[in-house]
Structure formats: C-alpha cells, structure tokens
Inverse folding.
C-alpha cells in the first residue's frame, strides 16, 4: 500500500500514515534548526512547530467531518459531496506538506540548500493547513444547520432561516493567499499544476494591462514579479478576485479566443469538415404542440430588444442538407438521425462557442453527428431571462430547419452543455414541458449550477481555494446575471436594432434560403448554381438567408485560536497591495459603464482587430475593501427557469434521461449531488459521475492535459449512452 492510498481507510481506526510521517519530519527538522539563530532558521522552526500545532487542532475536526460526510452521498458507488471535498483538500495538503518537509530533511546539510526558499515553502504549508482547519470549523456549523429532505438524507443546501451572512463574514477572514501562491494547485493532478500556474501568471499580468494604478514601468516590473515571486502573484490574484469588476472577468475569460491563444491548441484539434456560423433572425416561429395544436415561440426581446442569434454548426462529415457541404469536394454522407444542441459555459457573462471548440471538435469527430452550439447573449448587458429566451428560440429554429440546413432528421435530439450552458439547457427543457412542445430526448450536463442563488453549501466554500473560479468572480457573475443595470426604453431598443440591422446589411449581401439549400445539396459545386460563390467561403464565416436575414461580419456575438493568530501574523506579509494597468481590448471594448460594449466591436470579418487600444484607463480599487456581505446586497428571484432545482416535482418528473458529470473539487458539486438525489426520488433516469483532481472548466483544458482529455472522453461516452437509449 502506498502512502498516497492510506487516506481511503477510516480515520477513526488509526491515524493515516501520511499524518504520522509529517509529524516525524516536522519534529526532526525542528530539532535540527533549533540551534539556528538567523532569521530564516528561526522562521523555519516556527513554521514547523505551527504545523504540529495545526495538526493537533485539525485531527478532531477531520474525524468529525469524516463521520458526517457519507450521510450526504448520492450513493455508495458514487460517493461525493462538499464535505468529502474538504477532506480531499486536507489529504492533498498533508501530502504536499510532507513532500516539502522531506525536501528540507534531505537537503538541509547540502551546500546548495537555500534556506530562504525553504523557509517560504514551509511557511506556505503551515498557512495552508491553518486555513483548511478554519474551513472545517465552518463545515461543522453548516452541518448543524442541515435538515433532512424527502429522500431521508440531510440537505447540502442551507436554508435561508439561518444566518448565512454571519458565516460569510467569517469566511471572508480566511487567509486565501496560501491557495494562490506557492501551494497553487496542490489539490489537482500533478500535470495540471504548471498549467494552472501559467493561467494565474497570465491573469495577474493581464490585470496590469487592464487596470492602470501606477506608471508603465511599475506595471511591467510587477508583471515580471508575478512569474518569479509566488507571494506577489498570490497578493495580486486575491486583490483581483475581491475587487475586480465584471468587465475584468469577461475580458480575461475571452482571452482564449484571441488568435494567439487559439493557435496554441489547434495543433491537436480535430479537423472538421463543417465549422459554420449561422445567424438566426428574429422572426415568427411556430412549432407543433404534443396535443396537435400549434405553439408560437416568443421572439427574444428582453433587455436588448430583438436581435439575431448566432449559432455554430460543427460536423466531422459533410452531409446532405447541411450548410457548407456543397462544392467543397469529398464524400457526402446522408442525413444524420441525431443532433446535439450545445450551450457553452462562462458564468453567463463570457465566452462563446469559439472558446469551447477545444473539446467540441473532438466531440463532433468521436460522435460523428452534427453539433449546434448556441452563442447566447451575455450578462450584464443581457441578464436573465435573455439567454434562456435565445436558447429556446434557437432550439425551435433547429427543429424547423434540421433537415434543410443542419443535416439531421432529428430522430433523436440531445442537449449538452457545461456550467452556465448546462443550466440554460435544463431551463429550456423545462420550458418545453411548459409549452407542451417536443423536449430533447436526453440531457448531458457537466459541472452545472442548478440553484442560482446565494445559498451556502460545503462545496461552494471551495471557491475560496479555486484558482479558476474564486469567490469574488462567482459573486459578480451571479449579480450580473440576475440584475439588470442597463434598463433601456423601448425607443432605445428599437434604435439599437435599427442600427444593428443597418450595419449588418451594409456588410453582407442577402442569400435566399433556396441558395443555402442548393449549396448544402450540391456535392459538385455546379458553376451555374447561383450559390456556388458561397462554396468558397471559409467554414467559419456567417451565412444568412431569407430566413436568416441579418448577420454581422463577426464570427460570434459580443465578446463576450493558535491557528488564527498564526494566520493574522502572516496576512500582513501579503497585504501590501500591488498595482496595475490599462483598458482591455481583446474581443470587445470596455465601455464607460464597465461593460464590454456590444456596439463597439473592434473586430473585422476575419476576426482581426482593426482599431487601436482604447484610450480610457481603469483603476483597481485597492483601498476600499468590500466585504462579501456588501457584495450581496441584491435579491435573487426564485425562478425555476433560472434555478431548475426549484421546479415543482410534477414538472421535474417529466424530464428526459439525464447524465451529469461533476468534479470532487468543483464549487458546483453539491448542486449536482442534490439534483441527482432529487431526480432519482422522482424516478427520472439519472446517472452521476464525480471525477477527481480536475478543476471547474476542465473541458477547455483537454488539449493540454491527459486527465482533462480523459474526462472529455467520458463525456462522449455518456452522450453515446443517451443516444442509445
């Protein structure tokens, strides 16, 4: 049995080997450095003694959480919940700390021993253990507030009749710096650690280009420090997560759509026969209802008025009745019997289908069926329910045009999505039930929030440790999605639509639907065909027709105790704030109201920027520190289409088969566990997978991580199982 495996046995029976090994190394190293009176030697010994103190405090807490965690599992075959997640964090922390102590023990007599380096490493470990110990104390409070639900098990969600704000204020005092400095990524697979470090360095460096707090020289100097100084990087990341507004989140998450970022993984991406953008106009749509009547699908109109919706069609095969299949040579296949409707993640505020091509291309290749990914409008310009309206509308459009434009008979149609996109897919499925129209034959969801509200659960506290989804980002995404700060009059909306239509029609000639169909059906690209001129268009250009009357030249829409004393002592080492940089100009501009401007896009037809850098500078407020309580001064509507977990049981019982995939370290883990428990009680066919060692949004890392790629392959397998039902 390896030392890494001994955590699988009950702690109540014995102390895991790793704990004992860490204690022995701490005692041995502390005895060695007892005679060292220099600052580094004294601090190393102090950190080692602090670790021993933290372990004494941690042990009864760990035992208690180990006892209660199994009560919340989905089942014995798939154990997992936020309580278990924090036990995993403790286990990985012990392993990491033991490794650092072992390095010190083996190298302490070497002439190459860097005492200052190892001093900082062991101090980081002691702070990490102290912070996790505090987290377990909060978990005990959450457990004392839990109540049993219909399946006889306690709920992971804490009700509003408890003082959640008291916990939130206490959580805000936890030392988060240790999670973003030298111990960054300790909880994830080893090959993900350098990737996450690179992302964090990019985030900190990008913030220097987004915010302007000092001189250009100071910002450049800070950027270099982020690469070589973990403490400086951690300080900057925590400052950003606490104080950066939603426009920074949008801008940073859109970086993976820049030309340079896209070219890096493209070496490993599957080559697709069809990768086509289609722009759906806002016009009347009807669908047959299940009772034989006709249902009119509402045109999306909330917040930003009537505007076209962009969708991306991906296919590894050219098919009859598929846009872009004519006149390009190669084998032409018949109509597919299946179609997948995909919605991307991004916290409802960022990214597009382009961001998710990294895994969608391999999905399309491995599944061999068309995938239609929807580029819904993003918050805060288009908060709830705008995106829901657009996904419903695009789904209805796909049902009407599947055989003529999408190359599918749609004998089976599935929804697939991750994070925010999976939430939208499930909301649309509930809408289909409400409207009595055809619902999808199955739904696949990855790391999805089903309760979009300020409701605490153990896994949601993982945001305090998550490098890709920190607490501050999560709060701002929630606020942007549920609140409308940009209310426009009807007249303003009409003006926007008029300007949009004018600029679009000036850029592109209209193409009739018959031309599109001819293009899709013409395998030889007949020169006499009026649509032949379209055959030479790049596969990622935007096509329009009489049914697609408006389009823009863009590929996608808007770019969218002792421990506490110890913590307090070292918090001061980090709180010397660093400073920061200029307005972002990646896939959109930063407007005066702190949002990415949809009407001021600096992108040309081919996706290259035609404008210079925005002149408006922005500053990161490092003086006025807001608490998490201040961030949550808004109300969240109890709407089941926003939070499907709140839907009535009689409606949820009508859901099609659902397969969910989540992660043991994901802030949305408890959402998936609770939803799966609820659906199983309602006799809905549901399965749940919980993967270890991967972060939220891992699908976007599949080209650069073996474990992430294996997780993506499991997604394909689950989708295939839905298709086989």
């Amino acid at each position: 049995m390896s030392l890494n495996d001994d955590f699988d046995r009950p702690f109540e029976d014995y102390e895991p080997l790793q704990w004992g090994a860490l204690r022995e190394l701490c005692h041995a190293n502390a005895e060695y450095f007892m005679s060292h009176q220099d600052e580094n030697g004294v601090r190393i010994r102090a950190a080692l003694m602090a670790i021993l103190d933290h372990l004494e405090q941690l042990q009864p807490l760990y035992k208690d959480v180990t006892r209660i965690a199994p009560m919340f599992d989905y089942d014995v075959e798939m154990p997992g919940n936020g309580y278990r997640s924090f036990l995993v964090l403790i286990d990985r922390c012990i392993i990491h700390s033991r490794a650092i102590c072992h390095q010190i023990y083996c190298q302490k007599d070497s002439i190459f021993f860097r005492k200052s380096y190892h001093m900082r490493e062991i101090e980081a470990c002691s702070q990490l253990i102290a912070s996790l110990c505090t987290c377990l104390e909060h978990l005990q409070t959450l457990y004392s507030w839990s109540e049993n639900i219909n399946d006889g098990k306690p709920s992971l969600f804490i009700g509003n009749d408890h003082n959640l704000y008291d916990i939130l204020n206490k959580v805000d005092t936890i030392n988060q710096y240790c999670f973003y400095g030298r111990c960054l990524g300790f909880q994830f697979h080893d090959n993900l650690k350098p990737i996450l470090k690179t992302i964090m360095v990019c985030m900190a460096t990008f913030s220097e280009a987004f915010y302007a707090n000092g001189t250009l020289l100071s910002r450049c100097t800070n950027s270099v420090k982020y690469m070589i100084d973990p403490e400086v990087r951690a300080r900057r990341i925590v400052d950003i997560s606490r104080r950066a507004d939603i426009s920074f989140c949008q801008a940073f998450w859109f970086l993976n759509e820049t030309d340079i970022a896209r070219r890096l993984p493209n070496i490993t991406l599957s080559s697709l026969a069809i990768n086509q953008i289609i722009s759906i106009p806002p016009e009347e749509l009807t669908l047959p209802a299940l009772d034989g009547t006709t249902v009119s699908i509402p045109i999306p109109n909330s917040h930003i008025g009537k505007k076209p919706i962009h969708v991306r069609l991906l296919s590894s095969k050219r098919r009859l009745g598929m846009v872009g299949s004519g006149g390009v040579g190669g084998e032409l296949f018949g109509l597919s019997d299946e179609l997948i409707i995909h919605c991307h993640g991004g916290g409802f505020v960022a990214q597009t289908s382009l961001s998710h091509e990294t895994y969608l291309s391999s999905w399309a290749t491995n599944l061999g069926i068309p995938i239609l990914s929807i580029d819904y409008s993003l918050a805060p310009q288009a908060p709830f329910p705008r995106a829901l309206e657009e996904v419903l509308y695009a789904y209805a459009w796909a049902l009407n045009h599947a055989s003529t434009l999408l190359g599918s008979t749609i004998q089976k149609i599935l929804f697939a999505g991750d994070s925010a996109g999976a939430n939208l897919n499930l909301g649309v499925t509930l809408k289909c039930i409400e409207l009595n129209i055809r619902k999808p034959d199955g739904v696949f969801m990855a790391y999805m929030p089903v309760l979009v509200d300020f409701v605490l659960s153990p896994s949601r506290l993982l945001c305090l440790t998550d490098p890709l989804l920190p607490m501050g980002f999560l709060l701002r995404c929630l606020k942007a999605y549920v609140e409308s700060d940009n209310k426009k009059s009807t007249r303003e909306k009409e003006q926007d639509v008029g300007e949009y239509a004018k600029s679009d029609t000036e850029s592109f000639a209209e193409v009739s639907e018959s031309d599109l169909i001819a293009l899709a059906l013409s395998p030889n690209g007949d020169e006499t065909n009026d649509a032949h001129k379209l055959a030479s268009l790049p596969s990622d250009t935007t096509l329009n027709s009489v049914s697609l009357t408006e389009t823009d030249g863009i590929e996608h829409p808007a770019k969218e105790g002792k421990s506490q004393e110890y913590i307090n002592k070292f918090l001061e080492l980090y709180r010397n704030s660093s400073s920061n940089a200029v307005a972002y100009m990646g896939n959109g501009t930063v407007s005066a109201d702190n949002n990415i401007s949809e009407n001021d896009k600096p992108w040309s037809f081919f996706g290259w920027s035609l404008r210079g850098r925005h002149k408006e500078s922005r500053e990161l407020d490092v003086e006025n520190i807001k608490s998490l309580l201040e961030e949550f001064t808004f109300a969240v509507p109890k709407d089941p289409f926003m939070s499907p977990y709140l839907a009535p049981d009689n409606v949820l019982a009508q859901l099609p088969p659902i397969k969910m995939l989540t992660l043991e370290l994901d802030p949305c883990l408890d959402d998936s566990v609770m939803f799966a428990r609820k659906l199983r009680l309602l006799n809905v066919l549901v399965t749940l997978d919980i993967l270890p060692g991967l972060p939220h949004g891992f699908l976007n890392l599949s080209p650069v991580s073996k474990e992430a790629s294996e997780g993506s392959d499991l997604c394909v397998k689950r989708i295939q199982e839905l298709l086989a039902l």
